[in-house]
Amino acid sequence: MINQHTLAALYDRFEELGHRMNNPADLQTAEFVSLSKEYSDLEPVVACARNLDSARSELADLDAMMSGEDAEMRALAADEMKTIKALIATLEKDLQILLLPKDAADELSAILEIRAGTGGEEAALFAADLYSMYQHYSENQGWRMEMLSGSTSDTGGFKEVICSISGKGVFSHLKYESGVHRVQRVPTTESGGRIHTSAATVAVLPEPKDVDIKIEDKDLRIDVFRASGPGGQSVNTTDSAVRITHLPTGVTVSQQDEKSQHKNREKAMKVLRARLYEHERDKVARERADARKSQVGSGDRSERIRTYNFPQGRVTDHRINLTLHKLDQVLAGTGLSEVIDALISEDRAERLADFNAHQ
User: Fold this and answer.
1) Sign of the CA dihedral running 55, 58, 64, 70
2) Which residues are 334's β-sheet partners?
3) How many Å apart are CA 214 and CA 4, to the nearest integer?
4) How many whole angstroms separate alpha carbon 100 and alpha carbon 83?
5) What's the pLDDT at 280?
6) Through-space distance between the first and last CA atoms of the chain, rounded to whole angstroms
7) What span, in angstroms and rounded, lies between the C-alpha atoms of 177 and 114?
8) Which among 21, 74, 111, 289 is least surrounded, fewest beta carbons within 10 Å?
9) Going by C-beta distance under 8 Å and a sequence separation of 6 or more, which residues neighbour residue 134?
10) How confident is the model at residue 3, as a pLDDT?
11) Over the stretch 44-76, which tens digit does the pLDDT of each residue have?
């Protein structure tokens, strides 16, 4: 049951925002943008709350009809009450979901980092499979994926790959992917046909906008050097590679994929900004950890979150005990939606339970 005081405060705030936005001359541009966003966020919440109020009012009218003398009207009211009660239950759940605290980073784009773990060349090939999976998933979602840097293995896998995924709500979907992904399969190089287990680590960082995080020039140390290829071989005759160190935190980012020092610096700053933003989020999350702990989407990279078993054609997400015998579809990106949707639902259910416990 939604607290009436909560609804009253919601209506008051919505009305206040509407009144202030009707007088834009009294507002600074940044303040008007902030109020507009809050108003836009509240609009669907208020619409749902008003529909709920209307349904409750209709239920009260039907309840009054039930005490009348007309038997036919009482029968009609009884039938209608079943429909209205079901509608109220749906609207209450919808409103609870809309009232859940939102992660400020959910609407942001993201930086995706994939690194081969235990398993040598096989782990690097699996890292490349994961990269392809996220590439197809991003295409299906209408997002834009751009590789920022990559280090390939001898067999064409990835020792490490970092990319940017741009679009609306990217982080809200991909944040559940952070962790250790494990693969079980017979390597193509294995003549004996033995199943090997190897792993890759995935990290998903929200990509902040320039206004989300300020980086002072005085806090940066920028080193330039010549880009090198495999075995330390110089592949560039100019100092185009860039290493940026954020002195207050010690976070370091290197970039050498581009021939232009300017482009390498631009890409390095993009990754640095994301890592510093995540650094601050982790700090806040640790401070709040005692208040609420959530296993789903925790982003703890030491935990094994998912196993891809090729001999059995299955994918298992260990956080929610979900097993799908759709390995090919998941790796093709299409089946990944089913896994991510299940993780979102589980996270929402946990937060709803927490919300109701404090009502």
Assistant:
1) negative
2) none
3) 40
4) 26
5) 80
6) 8
7) 10
8) 289
9) 112, 114, 145, 165, 174, 177, 333
10) 65
11) 888 988 998 899 888 888 888 888 777 888 888
